[in-house]
TrEMBL record:
It comes from the Bacteria. It catalyses: dTDP-alpha-D-glucose = dTDP-4-dehydro-6-deoxy-alpha-D-glucose + H2O. Keywords: Lyase, NAD. Residues 8-328 form the NAD(P)-binding domain. The keyword NADP does not apply. Transmembrane segments: none annotated. Belongs to the NAD(P)-dependent epimerase/dehydratase family. dTDP-glucose dehydratase subfamily. This is dTDP-glucose 4,6-dehydratase. Pfam families: GDP_Man_Dehyd.
Length: 359
């Protein structure tokens, strides 16, 4: 039965991938192999609860390594690939785009090539069940003016950062491997995620952790950049839904219909911390907000039209922004061991150089 074969997850030790892997085992969805390079963005501690689970296999390796991929596909008859692995931080892509082109473009190419060879070896039933699912971002669509309609699946691509351009390139490769070679691919383009295990260089965890330490809360520019926030568990359920029911060759936009200006997000977090940490000497935490020089080429607004996945596949997010944010803040308050483990020397150096108060 091809449904008992393992799935391959790439980048499963990062923020969204790890949430996906943990949820996968929580619902008993079957064997899974996790291929991850363990860059700075990965934290093996996130998956320590899976050690010893016979259905879980971790492979430390690079998706750009074609030999490694070939060996992996020879050892396992994967029924699906869920491709998360990427360099994902826009600020880092501005300072050093090379790693983004390497992993996001060449890595996706290597994975598609290996997946296609693998697909050719499968029998009829296995081929019918096989999927290559590519996890992508709404940033490929560029930026919106306040009056523009939200991004839908036919919005033209207009990536503005090196990160977004590299993800756009990978999306096009996935599309081509379907149209040219018949590889059964699906794709999701999702808005900004937040939730547990989020690396603290990103807005929401950065603000929570800085506020707890009484450090400045650096807000880019005027703080009026609008993002459409989705709780990470809802993104993971959308990916499972597309894997199960999505039409081959299709793209589904995923979002929570939670458009918020960055400054509003930070103020909401401060209010939650005022409530949840009443003993804090930094209350009200909003006094820590500092406006810093805007990011070059900063997109003003992202918003997702998710009617296709909602109407066609019946997926709906479970968390509102308010409930999801409360869960997230509580998680960061309760998981100090995880937080201490990511506050390593390398990370602190990065934060000090790039997030110092530049106003
Ligand atoms: P992340 O940076 O937290 O994790 C990326 C993971 O990929 C890490 O574990 C890292 O070690 C691994 N990795 C990096 N390069 C690799 C390589 N060459 N080979 C193997 N593994 C490698 O990223 P994330 O936020 O979890 O994002 C996961 C995916 O979802 C990405 O493709 C990203 O573009 C997409 N996405 C993210 C968001 C978001 O808000 N974070 C929104 C939409 C889409």
């Amino acid at each position: 039965d091809p449904h008992n074969a393992p799935i391959l997850v790439t980048g499963g030790a990062g923020f969204i991938g790890a949430n996906f892997v943990l949820d996968w085992f929580a619902i008993g969805a079957g064997p899974l192999v996790n291929l991850d390079k363990l860059t700075y963005a990965a934290n093996p501690l996130t998956l320590s609860s899976l050690e010893g689970n016979p259905d879980y296999t971790f492979v430390h390796g690079d998706i750009c390594d074609g030999e490694l991929l070939r060996g992996l596909f020879q050892r396992h008859r994967f029924r699906a690939i869920v491709h998360f692995a990427a360099e994902s931080h826009v600020d880092r892509s501005i300072l050093g785009p090379e790693a983004f082109l390497k992993t996001n473009i060449d890595g996706t190419f290597q994975l598609l090539k290996a997946a296609r060879e693998h697909y050719d070896t499968l029998d009829g039933a296995e081929r019918a069940a096989f999927r290559f699912h590519h996890v992508s971002t709404d940033e490929v669509y560029g930026t919106l003016e306040p009056q523009d309609p939200a991004f839908h699946e036919n919005t033209p691509y207009a990536p503005n950062s090196p990160y977004a351009a590299s993800k756009a390139a990978s999306d096009h490769l996935v599309r081509a491997w379907h149209h040219t070679y018949g590889l059964p691919t699906t794709m999701t383009n999702c808005s900004n995620n937040y939730g547990p295990y989020h690396f603290p260089e990103k807005l929401i965890p950065l603000m929570i952790l800085n506020a707890l330490d009484g450090k400045p809360l650096p807000v880019y520019g005027d703080g009026q950049q609008v993002r459409d926030w989705l709780y990470v568990k809802d993104h993971c359920s959308a990916i499972r839904t597309v894997l199960e029911k999505g039409r081959v060759g299709e793209t589904y936009n995923v979002g929570g219909c939670n458009q918020r200006a960055n400054l509003d997000v930070v103020n909401t977090l401060c209010a939650l911390l005022d409530e949840l940490v009443p003993e804090s000497k930094y209350r009200p935490h909003s006094q820590l907000i500092r406006f810093v020089q805007d990011r070059p080429g900063h997109d003003r607004r992202y918003a997702i039209d998710a009617t296709k996945i909602e109407g066609e596949l019946g997926w709906h997010p479970q968390e509102s922004f308010e409930t999801g944010l409360r869960k997230t803040v509580s998680w960061y308050l309760e998981n100090t061991e995880w937080i201490d483990s990511v506050k390593s020397g390398e990370y602190l150096k990065w934060i000090d150089t790039n997030y110092s108060d530049r106003a």
